[in-house]
């Protein structure tokens, strides 16, 4: 929905950038050869409905590429502050928009139930709280969620502050 980070890409002649709400807006059948959904399905309360729509948007033999999240490995983080911060993030997103940050474990079933042939699957564990590249993503995410928690006068905002400090 928010396309502000695609301004440079939108200048490319062969690329069209659209603001599109996959839960509300459709495309004609057979509109795409490839549909790539990165970190989308975990933020939807009904991902199976969107996958069914995506199957219609693809040409016959088209490719669906889904990259999504499963926060379960974070439960084993050696950083208790990060575990608590991620738990608050998970609770906040689930309550506010129906997100499922552990959707990754259900992804194969969701994709095949939507009628797609599973061509393969790869799992890439990401460490959080050790100075790696995922830390900046989560720092920014915690900052956004902190604003939400602060507006609702939630005591959980402190947990997000502590996680951001890592």
Question: Can you describe what's shown?
Answer:
The protein has 166 residues and is an alpha+beta fold. 40% of the residues lie in helices and 10% in strands. It contains six helices and two strands. The protein has helices spanning 7-10, 47-57, 80-97, 107-113, 134-151, 157-165, and strands at 32-38, 58-67. Strands 1-2 form a two-stranded parallel sheet. Helix 2 (47-57) links the parallel strand 1 and strand 2 (58-67). Helix 5 runs antiparallel to helix 6 (157-165). It is globular. The relative contact order is 0.14. The mean pLDDT is 88.
Q: From the alpha carbons, calculate the radius of gyration and give it in angstroms.
A: 18 Å
Strand content: 5-15%
Poorly predicted tracts of residues? none
Strand order of the largest sheet: 1-2
Contiguous helical run count: 6
Large-scale geometry:
globular
Cα-to-Cα separation, first versus last residue: 30 Å
Structural class label: alpha+beta
Strand tally is 2
How does the major sheet shape up? Answer: 2 strands, parallel
Compute the average pLDDT: 88
- Portion of residues within helices: 40-55%
Element string (H = helix, E = strand): HEHEHHHH
Task: Write a concise keyword list for the protein shown above.
about 170 residues; alpha+beta; two-stranded parallel ribbon; globular
Task: List the SSEs and their pairings.
Elements: H1 7-10, E1 32-38, H2 47-57, E2 58-67, H3 80-97, H4 107-113, H5 134-151, H6 157-165
Parallel strand pairs: 1-2
Helix pairs in contact: 3-5, 3-6, 5-6
């Amino acid at each position: 929905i928010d396309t502000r980070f695609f301004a440079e890409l939108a200048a490319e002649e062969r690329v069209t950038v659209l603001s599109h709400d996959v839960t509300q807006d459709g495309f004609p059948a057979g509109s795409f050869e490839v549909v790539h959904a990165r970190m989308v399905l975990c933020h939807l309360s009904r991902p199976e409905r969107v996958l069914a729509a995506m199957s219609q948007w693809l040409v016959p033999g088209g490719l669906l590429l889904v990259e999504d999240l499963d926060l379960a490995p974070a439960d084993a983080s050696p950083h208790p502050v990060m575990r608590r911060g991620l738990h608050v993030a998970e609770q906040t997103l689930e309550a506010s928009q129906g997100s499922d940050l552990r959707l990754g474990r259900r992804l194969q079933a969701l994709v095949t139930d939507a009628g797609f042939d599973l061509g393969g699957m790869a799992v890439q564990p990401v460490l959080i709280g050790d100075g790696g590249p995922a830390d900046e993503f989560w720092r920014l995410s915690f900052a956004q969620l902190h604003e939400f928690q602060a507006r609702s006068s939630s005591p959980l905002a402190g947990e997000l502050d502590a996680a951001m400090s890592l």
